[in-house]
Amino acid sequence: MAKLDNNGILQRLQERFVDDAIRNVSEPFGLLTVETDTTQLLDVLEFLKTDGELQFGYLTDITAVHYPEKDKELAVVYHVHSLINRMRIRIKVFVDGKYPAIPTATALWDGANWMERETYDFFGIQFVGHPDLRRILNVDDMEVFPMRKEYPLEDSNKVDKKDYFFGR
Fold first, then answer.
1. Which of 23, 86, 103, 165 keeps 20 to 30 A from 39, CA to CA?
2. Closest to 75 measured CA to CA, from 147, 138, 134, 162
3. DSSP string computed for 75-141
4. Which residues of 107-130 are buried (b: 16+ CB within 10 A; e: fewer)?
5. How many angstroms separate the CA atoms of 97 and 104, rounded?
């Protein structure tokens, strides 16, 4: 078997998934990044994990990014790692901000449990089918999701931020 690289990974994905399931391919800083949708996500993740050549068996992280200017304003981001091939890949799935829902990956990786809870806690992503989706770091009665870009970065009334304190 030849050494696996980003082109080889992308080729395997495109052979397996047709009909635009793998799109918006890029390689920021050499990290292969692809986008898929919620209906294809679990199939893509399972293929990456179980394919005998790819062997992306290690889920490194699940997180989200809020893009308030986009139609589908929340991106759920998965990083998976092939320890055998020494390769990583990033998978992005964009979801609606009003009711962001995506299938859970806990059936593929037990470690997805806490990562999904954290992503829910900070971004409000609903991981459908998750065995225990509740807040993990913030207080239980919190009604907002603090990592969404819906709040000002600073308190405009804060006295120590006034320009006259800095000679402006």
1. 86
2. 147
3. EEEEEEEETTTTEEEEEEEEE-SSS-EEE--TTT-TTHHHHHHHHHHHH--EEET-TT---SSS-TT
4. ebbeebbebbbbbbbbbbbebeeb
5. 17
What's the mean pLDDT in 2-21? 90
Residue 147 contacts residue 123 (beta carbons within 8 Å): yes
Residue with tokens 């980003």: 6
Q: Is 65 exposed, middle or buried (0-12, 13-18, 19+ CB in 10 A)?
A: middle
Pair 105, 112: CB distance under 8 Å: yes
CATH number of 6-166: 3.30.460.80
pLDDT band (50, 70, 90) for residue 58: very high
pLDDT tens for each residue of 64-82: 999 999 989 999 999 999 9
Largest CA distance in the chain: 67
Is the CB of residue 43 less than 8 Å from the CB of residue 17?
A: yes
Decide: 25 and 33 in contact? Cβ < 8 Å: yes
